[in-house]
Design brief:
Length: 458
């Protein structure tokens, strides 16, 4: 008997889930995407005549799901790694190179930290106390900021770890669950008395060898989305089809769109959590729990300059701006240094970000005001004298779910609510078990597996 499955949301999680369920001959799957294109937060468009990412530009290889999908899709030969991994942080208005020995912003080598002048000598000595302080692990639900402040002091938390880790999730590390937002740090701190010793032991045991930590595509991350869409063959996938409601009758679901209603046996809901909350408004308490997940917004301005107009050598992948510097800019990726194929010999490309948890100033500015403010700030830091050759603004509203301490229990409670109130509906995507592309791929696969298991019970 043929079973009907609807996947809601055509980002990387939804597309992966669709690919898995539609491999089963007895499943008829439909994917409904609200916008005019697939990929969600993954979007590659032309800038200065070449494909340049507006959102994600690389994925991490420390977890296998990104590489595995690329291998399945025959994309491994198109993967490339960034040209440089060094980066800078702004301290009291001066760019300082990140020191050797950093792990997610945590300094494991104190001499390079002192030489970097990112923190003062007393703060560097305080960081070194980590090796001698007694084990003071407070138990579960610690924030990343809490962990770093207790082991290494405030300056390490504010000038290194928050700018670096916060830039990944547009978050505030004082409110970011350590176990979910920085599992590597949390495990090292939990299993060892000292964070530094724990990280050094992890490094020794690590079997990553020569594999680059990040991988991207010459034609941008959009290449992954296009290939994934092509791989689902003749599956029914629709853009411009926002789902407006999902209800459950005895035995089946009704998924209502702007055009029609579709009856189905199971649903994979792969929208952001705040949109899932709206679609499940009648399923309480799941909907309230979903809407309690906070989201941060980011505006990214891609800027093109003549290379000769930029005083700084841009010898790194970019710069991070700690909150304490008081700028609107939160980070700038030196795109054409990281990915040299993004620009020709005469031009450079920067991707300048504004907005993070607790800082919504960018939302109040129109595009011209935003570009002008960010341009003034980066021109000052990087000694840029000429005009912009090209620019574009990408606004990512409510795009970054914030994993507050206890987020894993919240997600487990939502899943329990759904098992009893909406059996046959499964969640996937950045809101739940990891925001990076590999984690979203993994959630797509897991939701597909759960769906197929559920269909067997009917
Ligand atoms: C600026 C930026 C930079 C990033 N950089 C990186 C990076 O370098 N590396 C990395 O690993 N990750 C990065 N991320 C994170 C990563 O890209 C995302 O977490 C991931 O792509 C999210 O995938 P998803 O499928 O869960 O959700 P989404 O991509 O948000 O997809 C959800 C889809 O659901 C659709 N939808 C919503 N409501 C409805 C509805 N009612 N009906 C139908 N469809 C609906 C949306 O239109 C969207 O297409 C970045 C994110 C951003 C915003």
């Amino acid at each position: 008997m043929t079973r009907e499955v609807v996947v809601v949301g055509g980002g990387i999680a939804g597309l992966t889930a669709l690919r898995q369920v539609q491999k089963q001959p007895e499943v008829n799957a439909v994917l409904l995407e609200a916008s005019s294109h697939f990929g969600g937060k993954i979007r590659t468009t032309n800038f200065l005549g070449r494909p340049v990412d507006e959102g994600a530009d690389a994925f991490i290889t420390r977890v296998p799901w990104g590489i595995e999908l690329c291998e399945e899709l025959g994309l491994d030969s198109f993967l490339i790694s960034p040209s440089t991994s060094s980066a800078y942080v702004l301290v009291d208005g001066v760019l300082r190179k990140l020191p050797a020995g950093l792990v997610l912003g945590v300094p494991t080598k104190l001499l390079p930290l002192m030489r970097s002048r990112i923190v003062g000598p007393l703060a560097a000595i305080r960081a070194g106390f980590d090796r001698f302080l007694p084990d003071d692990w407070p138990g579960d639900d610690e924030s990343v900021g809490g962990l770093i402040r207790r082991r290494m002091g405030d300056q390490i938390a504010e000038r290194l770890v928050d700018p670096l880790l916060g830039s990944i999730s547009a978050g505030d590390t004082d409110h970011l669950d350590a176990a979910l937002g920085a599992p590597q740090l949390e495990t090292a701190a939990r299993r060892n008395r000292s964070l530094i010793i724990g990280l050094k032991e992890q490094a020794k045991a690590s079997a990553h060898g020569q594999t680059p930590i990040f991988l991207g595509f010459e034609n941008g991350m959009g290449h992954l989305v296009e290939t994934l869409v092509n791989s689902v063959g003749d599956a029914d996938i629709r853009t411009n089809t926002p789902v407006t409601a999902i209800t459950r009758n005895t035995g089946n679901f009704v998924v209502t769109t702007n055009q029609s209603s579709i009856e189905c046996d199971a649903v994979i809901l792969a929208t952001p959590a705040h949109q899932a909350a709206q679609l499940l408004a009648t399923c309480q308490p799941a909907a309230d729990r979903l809407s309690s997940i906070e989201h941060a917004s980011v505006a990214m301005v891609t800027m093109g300059f003549k290379r000769s107009d930029v005083g700084h050598s841009l010898d790194g992948s970019g710069m991070l701006i700690p909150r304490g510097e008081g700028l609107l800019t939160t980070a700038a990726s030196w795109g054409s240094s990281k990915w040299p194929h993004w620009a020709d010999e005469e031009h450079v490309i920067l991707r300048v970000s504004a907005g993070r948890a607790g800082d919504t100033r960018a939302l109040a500015l129109d595009d011209n005001e935003l570009v002008e403010t960010l341009l003034t700030e980066v021109a000052n830091i990087l000694e840029i004298e000429g005009d912009l050759v090209e620019w574009r603004v990408s606004r990512w509203i409510d795009a970054f779910p914030q994993y507050a301490p206890g987020h894993d229990r919240l997600v487990a409670a939502i899943e329990r609510d759904l098992r009893s109130g909406m059996p046959g509906l499964f969640l996937a995507g950045a809101g739940y078990k990891g925001i990076g592309i590999p984690a979203c791929i993994n959630q797509g696969n897991q939701s597909a597996e759960a769906t197929l298991d559920y269909l067997k019970t009917l």
